[in-house]
Design goal:
The protein has three helices and five strands, in the order βαααββββ. The protein has 142 residues and is of the alpha+beta class. A five-stranded antiparallel beta sheet has the order 1-3-4-5-2.
Length: 142
């Protein structure tokens, strides 16, 4: 597969379709099983509070993975992402209810680079707080 988006058709400032990702405690348990990260701060409310957290929090790598979906969906090929990095700024707090939390992600093309590459800057928030900082991906377009 290759990216479906053509480099020549993209301008700096192009906004990618924003997405919202729901996160429940069940989501975290499934992610823990898949990743092998069974740290109790991600599933045990009592433990999370005892160590100073407001509640159970989503795995940072899970949050990071959900955010990049905006870019991979837009590009049409996950392999088009050649570089991706973030700073974790705030945790995604996941209450024990039927709703859980939401991770809201917006992104835009911040720079056109050489060789068909673009830099995409992402903004990820949850409960009105920025949860990822310096979230950037370099994407090879068609």
């Amino acid at each position: 597969m290759t990216a479906k988006i053509a480099y020549d058709e993209v301008e700096v400032g192009t906004e990618l379709p924003a997405q919202t990702f729901p996160v429940t405690r069940a989501t975290l348990v499934r992610y823990a099983g898949a990743s092998g990260d069974f740290n109790p701060i991600h599933w045990n409310e009592k433990f999370a509070v005892e160590v100073g957290l407001p509640d159970v929090i989503a795995h940072g790598m899970f949050t990071m993975a959900e955010a990049i979906r905006v870019v991979t969906d837009w590009a049409g090929d996950p392999a088009a992402v050649v570089e991706y990095g973030v700073r974790f700024t705030k945790p995604v707090v996941v209450p024990s209810d039927d709703t859980g939390a939401l991770i809201e992600v917006a992104a835009k093309v911040a720079a056109k680079l050489d060789d068909g590459l673009v830099r995409v800057d992402l903004t990820a928030t949850s409960a009105g707080q920025k949860v990822l900082g310096m979230s950037r991906a370099v994407v090879r377009l068609a």
